[in-house]
Amino acid sequence: MNFIAWTPIFIAVVIFTIWCLWHIATHDVPFMPKWGWSILVIVAMPLGGLVYVLVAVLDAGEYRADAEGRKHPDA
Fold first, then answer.
1. d(CA 29, CA 24)
2. Using CA atoms, how far apart are residues 22 and 16, in angstroms rounded to an integer?
3. In angstroms, how far is CA 38 from the centroid of its own chain?
4. Structural domain span for residue 36
5. Is residue 40 included in any domain, yes or no?
6. pLDDT value of position 25
7. Under 8 Å CB-to-CB from 44, ≥6 apart: which residues?
8. Considering only CA atoms, which of 3, 4, 45 is closest in space to residue 21?
9. In this predicted structure, what is the pLDDT of residue 8?
10. Helix count and strand count (H, E) for the chain
11. CA–CA distance from 72 to each of 14, 19, 47, 57 (Å)?
């Protein structure tokens, strides 16, 4: 197996994981405590990071009706 060919993928996964951990540390995160998201991102790398981005970063409950009753500002 040619490990040199996989190097860019490994580097991209490490950079993505570091970005996720930085975002968790510097922002308020929904649905779970920060330590829970951090463990998910590290243990389930890179799937945990993708879940974090899809659930907490992109959707975060800010622009949809949710359990807290928040709605989109234009609605």
1. 7
2. 10
3. 9
4. 3-57
5. yes
6. 94
7. 51
8. 45
9. 92
10. 3, 0
11. 34, 27, 28, 16
Residue type, 19: W
Using 50, 70 and 90 to split pLDDT, how confident is the model at 68?
Answer: low
**53, 43 contact by CB (below 8 A):** no
Q: Residue 38 and residue 70: Cα distance in Å, rounded?
A: 26
Query: Is-contact 20 47, C-beta < 8 A?
Result: no
Whether residue 11 lies inside any domain: the answer is yes
CA distance 51 to 1: 30
At residue 65, the pLDDT reads 52
The tokens of 19 are what?
């970005």
Average pLDDT, the chain: 82
DSSP annotation of 64: S
In the prediction, which pLDDT does 58 show? 75
- Provide the number of structural domains found in the chain: 1
Token output for 24:
């968790």
